[in-house]
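Below is one such record:
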Amino acid sequence: MFGLMVRFTCKDEASAAAFDDLVARTGELIRANEPGTVIYTVHRVDGRPLERIFYELYRDKDAFEEHESKDYVRAFLSERDKYLAATEVDRLDFVSGKGVDVEH
């Protein structure tokens, strides 16, 4: 398994709404076209209306690289910056968990 946790901070409320729309459109394509993307979730942060947390889990590094190569992901990556004040990315090394069928 290969994962990411990303914290995005939007510039303002209007940017947050536009970012959420971009995320929704991109998420539909991820769900429909990426069997190697095990989990791709987006959360609003309670008490911080401009922040979003993405939790992404991929079958393996190759599935992540396939995800990154998709035209719709590349479009998301190029468009998102106009809505954001900050981005923090943590790459995750899977240890254990519940709810995901993992082969080691």
